[in-house]
Amino acid sequence: MSDFQDLISKLKKKNDSKIVLLVADGLGGLPLEPGGKTELETANTPNLDALAQRGTLGLSTPVLPGITPGSGPGHLGLFGYDPVKYQIGRGVLEALGIDFDLGPNDVAIRGNFCTLDDAGSIEDRRAGRISSEKAAPLCEKLNDIKIPGVEVFVRHVKEYRLVVVFRGEGLGGDVDDTDPQATGVPPLDPNPRNEAAKKTVEVAQEFLKQARELLKDDRPANFLTLRGIAKRPDIPTYEEVYGLKTGAVAVYPMYRGLARLVGMDVLDAGQTLDDQCSRLEAAWKDYDFFFMHFKYTDSTGEDGNFDAKVQRIEELDAAIPRITALNPDVLMVTGDHSTPSKMKSHSWHPVPTLLAANNCRYDNSTEFSESACLRGGLGQFEAKYLMSLAMANAGRLEKYGA
Amino acid sequence: MSDFQDLISKLKKKNDSKIVLLVADGLGGLPLEPGGKTELETANTPNLDALAQRGTLGLSTPVLPGITPGSGPGHLGLFGYDPVKYQIGRGVLEALGIDFDLGPNDVAIRGNFCTLDDAGSIEDRRAGRISSEKAAPLCEKLNDIKIPGVEVFVRHVKEYRLVVVFRGEGLGGDVDDTDPQATGVPPLDPNPRNEAAKKTVEVAQEFLKQARELLKDDRPANFLTLRGIAKRPDIPTYEEVYGLKTGAVAVYPMYRGLARLVGMDVLDAGQTLDDQCSRLEAAWKDYDFFFMHFKYTDSTGEDGNFDAKVQRIEELDAAIPRITALNPDVLMVTGDHSTPSKMKSHSWHPVPTLLAANNCRYDNSTEFSESACLRGGLGQFEAKYLMSLAMANAGRLEKYGA
């Protein structure tokens, strides 16, 4: 634990309060022109605005100023974990993204099918972007690889991408990629970065040897490279840090996986925001804390579709009454990062954040927007402190010192 | 020292400036209803408002977001010490609270008289809340306990509560409580949490053995439990960090003790704010820095008495002209934490803070209030940085680097 989480963990106490963290992925935006409005400011959001009036606003910095986070660090910050301390390897994120239940003894790897020429050099790093139909059976073939003392799992992701997991005692995660990031050269040998990774390298070498034999007639996918070889971070659970019994209501596997990483129960969330609200209602009595995730504010931003992002924010707004009807003691609405449609990508901009609770200090906000959040009572703060504010507002922290 | 204090200590320089830190305990508040005003916003404070116009405002986070501090960490933060790094044990705070002058070789303990049954199990953890009249002579009896190589002090606090201090070389502070927090079981043995605490445990065992004999006929107070066994933190003094000669003008023992902990001279402050101002005037030439403490903004908040807190703030405001008449180079008005009367308790909310000095950057504030502080020039900042701002404004810090 970080010192701060250690402090929170010592101060935590239980009560009957309910906390909801509603994450609109990539919520923050930018105006298209100077003086213009952001997506959130353009959207008609009567329910969020009403919530802003009885809550307090602020801008959350996902990691540190200027840092654009991926979904992993973005969510770890919101969950109260220092996203610089706890790093999630690419292989782990890829495994979480296909709902693979990673254990503490698992090494997760992102695999890419590639094409080797007769001399064994890489001709195409993505095997001609082979179709999913053709790649999936190859993954099944690789899944039959047996290595003594280790369980091997191979799962297809999409096109040339796959996930490989080695499960066994004593496997370290710090192994260099075998992808040379170039063509005309052979794949690299897996290289251990420390003592603990040596056994993993032996396993990887054996895996690659068998894979080369199994795939030799499957050109263009006649071999694979291994990338982002990593174990999941050794991370304290929500129960350990906050004493909270936690349910995640997320549709997309990546976010379900991130929730599982911190020990949340991952609930069946259906496919739509309506499904998610129904699940929230059904599970309301069973948990202290709910993490709800809404993906489309990010994907429309990534598409550079300003109007579609506005629409998705309005869709989110329409779901708010079903959440507030449950009377959560603390309701937070925020994002894991900004995804301005102007930039068609994640960005570093701080994220509009709303916290509504009985004892929050009102800040005269009348709407939920980037500009109102800039003047809000929470100020600008690092995302990792949002959970301690939630715990305080829920009455779940003892006084520190006498 | 923390890295930051180490830096300040290297940059400090002397001049003839005078700095006043006026702490209104628990100053921050909450409105009773959305859109309403806090206690400070309700109070009529012409003098503080005038000071706000020629000063700069901000909101101070006592420890970290969401953390509700006790008086100890609240003041350490204002004094510029990292309140997470320097922790003050319960026994130390209890000793400070009765004006006991704790030295670096002292282990301070909060004692509770308790009732043992014939089998030696605890029947009542507070000895029937024995009256002060009956408990005081028992403390005097215990004060006669002699242990070779160690001085023993026993002081009555109130009703069943007392302070025990062991003074001697090589006594560590990390010893578990002997109070089992339950009845029907015997008191626990004192248990060392590390090597340095072993000698303290031997002393405590001998003390408890003699106490059991001395008190055996004093039912209901026929024994005592020991709690919060601790040494004062090894903390650099104000002279070491800031090069300031410092006088504390505080009425209540706890705050006099906290001032003494960081090496302040504790002055006779009388009983009222008027007395305190007179003392400040009389001592003005003798010190560089004055810490003035006003208790009643906290106690009225704890009582849940919104109107009384408003009145106490107005009382504080009325004292401002006597302070400004002395022309301090830097005058700060703040609190060690918030105590909203709505909550009847300390809280985590950031604390309104005012700093007036010749070279501060005005922020167009027209009043001293939570909402003005939210928009103030100091922004939201951790309390531990207030002292470096004061030093800077007093011209007492050299340039850092060339």
TrEMBL record, chains A, B:
UniProt region (Disordered), positions on chain: 175-194
SUPFAM superfamilies, alphabetized: Alkaline phosphatase-like (SSF53649)
Pathway as given in its UniProt record: Carbohydrate degradation
Molecular function via GO: metal ion binding; phosphoglycerate mutase activity
Keywords of this entry: Glycolysis
Residue stretches making up the Metalloenzyme domain: 18-392
Entries under Pfam families matching the protein: Metalloenzyme, PhosphMutase
Transmembrane segments: none
Coiled coil: none
Catalytic activity: (2R)-2-phosphoglycerate = (2R)-3-phosphoglycerate
A GO BP annotation: glycolytic process
InterPro entries: Alkaline_phosphatase_core_sf, Metalloenzyme, Pglycerate_mutase_ApgM, Pglycerate_mutase_ApgM_sf
Gene3D superfamilies the UniProt entry points to: Alkaline Phosphatase, subunit A, Metalloenzyme domain
Classification via PANTHER family: COFACTOR-INDEPENDENT PHOSPHOGLYCERATE MUTASE, METALLOENZYME DOMAIN-CONTAINING PROTEIN
Functional description taken from the UniProt entry: Catalyzes the interconversion of 2-phosphoglycerate and 3-phosphoglycerate.
Family: Belongs to the BPG-independent phosphoglycerate mutase family. A-PGAM subfamily.
NCBIfam families associated with the record: apgM (TIGR00306), PRK04135.1 (NF003160)
Protein's recorded name: Cofactor-independent phosphoglycerate mutase
Lineage: Bacteria, Pseudomonadati, Planctomycetota, Planctomycetia, Planctomycetales
